[in-house]
Amino acid sequence: MAVESYLQEQERQRFLAQYAEIASLAGGLAHEIRNPLSTICMNLELLAEDLESSSSPRDRRMLTKVQTIQRECGNLEKVLNAFLQFARVGELEMTESDLNMLVRDFIDFYQPEANEHEIEISPHLAPDLPAVRLDRSLMQQVLMNLALNAQQAMPNGGLLELQTYLRDGRVLLGLIDNGKGMDDRTMSKMFQVFFSTKPGGSGLGLPTVRKIVEAHEGTITCESEPGRGTRLTISLPPAESARP
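and the corresponding structure tokens:
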């Protein structure tokens, strides 16, 4: 059994090393694209300023085309930023943390946005929850991505519940909304890279969430039904100090 565990650990280390190399190459490529893109954006801005001062019909038509290119460059920059986040997920700074405190901090941060979109936040946090090892910044990113997804599913407002509880020795975090819900086809693809149902979406938000959760030795599952809302559940192992 000890030999099997050792071999599994060796395999995991090889995988992490390969992943780190691929992530480094991907991040470098994204930076190489970003540099000329920034130059293009800057020159488009200067060109637009020159055209805005002209009343010539030809220049006005050119300005419209330049503004279209600027919007597309902006969309490309958003995709690059999302991709860089996706590529960097392996860089974790883990600390033993109170998951309930993390959720409360997130609610305080997200509350103004929720109020603006008429979303009621309902926390149900289990007392005496075991500590977990987290990269707090990345897990806050997970909560924000999931909350924004729920927000988009509730365009006219709604209810967002956040639950923490212990089950079968695992620490669970649930986010439940009463929004539009998803069909089976969308659920089967929601964690695929570059899959998005939103116009202009990068398709990297939920894949990044899954990568972050898996990097914490966790899992994320989804239950949803059109017109009935969505429940996402994150399962994490307790910290070593909290294990029996």
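(Above: one complete record from the training split.) The helical segments are 2-52, 57-87, 99-116, 136-153, 184-189, 205-215.
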